[in-house]
TrEMBL record:
Gene that encodes the chain: Pyroxd2
Domain of life: Eukaryota
Stated family: Belongs to the carotenoid/retinoid oxidoreductase family.
Phylogenetic placement of the source organism: Eukaryota, Metazoa, Chordata, Craniata, Vertebrata
Matching InterPro entries: FAD/NAD-bd_sf
Protein name: PYRD2 protein
UniProt source species: Pedionomus torquatus (Plains-wanderer)
Length: 356
């Protein structure tokens, strides 16, 4: 349990709760859920430019990272096609992957196929089911994809001014504007209470809010004097109590609740809002292909990690279909922007390619 680990090392509740957020980010779990301690470890493993456990900001937004990877691939001769939906993986008579078929009927032939889609989409939608072992299919169907996350992107006409650290008169970003701020995280009990409400199908009344202002570091993201605010919030269940839909009314009611919470910490925030984009778990699934809206392609619980990710005997990136590999967050070691799954999968695929 994360709570036990934090209690051993720290006395301050605000500090414990701040650390606890990294143990529940993206997880339908509370700090008191068994296995939550690993999720914290997962978020602080590795290093950035020699600093252990550090995270970095991508100049130009997360899309700039994708563009950098694409540029490196293109420089080595890769051909990149976007807005081309894949219908299914193309298999030969011997059952080997031979490429993919696009929705317009175009066949793209290749000796190997690496899928960055979730295990559910890769194996339940894009791969012919008769080519997969029944126990493997059952395991993929049983992956826990519950997600508590609603992402809200906000455009504001001025920096939030927090009661705890008011803005400077010149309106320039202060150090706390250039990092993540955790709201409604005064103690771990608040996090557990928010989780408990969501388990019953109700969006949290005091949701956990991670607030970042990317434009404080990267001014090119917003017009002069204005800013973009990224809100990573939970807990919001994928399915609301009583089967109620996540319609516009429900989405706006939750966003209003989040904004009311921020207003208590930074009066004037609501008046500064120019526009907002609300992405509930069903929105994240529909737009980005995330099963259940889960940003990790599946829960990071101990029964879905290491040798069991995405399924026992298939943690080595190879799939039951020869020549088809899983290289996204649903593969070992799981979610997070670190590229480990992709790098490892590429190395395995290259080993097999040399044998062809």
């Amino acid at each position: 349990l994360l709570g036990q680990i934090l209690d051993q090392w720290f006395e301050s509740e605000p500090l414990k709760a701040t650390l606890a957020t990294d143990a529940v980010i993206g997880a339908m779990a509370s700090p008191h859920t068994p296995g939550s301690g690993y999720v914290l470890l997962h978020h602080v493993m590795g290093e950035l430019e020699g600093r252990r456990g550090a995270w970095g900001y991508v100049a130009g937004g997360m899309g700039a990272l994708s563009q950098a990877i694409a540029g490196a691939a293109a420089a080595r001769g890769a051909h990149i096609f976007t807005e081309k939906a894949v219908c299914h993986v193309l298999l030969g008579k011997d059952g080997r992957a031979q490429g993919v078929v696009l929705q317009d009927g175009t066949e793209v032939r290749s000796k190997l196929v690496l899928s960055n889609a979730s295990p559910q989409i890769t194996f339940l939608e894009l791969t012919p089911q008769e080519e997969l072992p029944k126990d493997f299919v059952q395991r993929i169907q049983q992956i826990d994809t519950r997600s508590p996350v609603t992402k809200i992107n906000v455009a504001v006409d001025r920096l939030p001014s927090f009661l705890a650290a008011p803005n400077a008169r010149d309106g320039r970003p202060l150090p706390h504007h250039q990092c993540a701020s955790h709201l409604n995280c005064e103690d771990t009990h608040l996090l557990h209470q928010a989780f408990a409400e969501a388990t019953h199908g109700h969006p949290s009344r005091r949701p956990m809010i991670e607030l970042c202002i990317p434009s404080a570091l990267d001014p090119g993201l917003a017009p002069r004097g204005c800013h973009v605010v990224s809100l990573f919030t939970q807990y919001t269940p994928s399915v609301l109590a009583g089967g109620q839909p996540w319609d516009e009314q429900a989405r706006n009611a939750y966003a209003d609740r989040v904004f009311d919470c921020i207003e208590a910490y930074a009066p004037g925030f609501k008046a500064s809002v120019i526009g907002r984009d609300i992405l509930t778990p069903p929105d994240l699934e529909r737009i980005f292909g995330l099963p259940g809206g889960n940003i990790f392609h599946g829960g990071m619980s101990l029964d879905q990690l290491y040798f069991a990710r995405p399924a026992p005997s298939y943690s080595g990136y190879r799939s039951p279909v020869t020549g088809l590999y899983l290289c996204g967050s649903g593969a070992h070691p799981g979610g997070g922007v670190m590229g480990a799954a992709g790098r490892n999968a590429a190395q395995v695929a290259l080993e097999d390619f040399k044998r062809l």
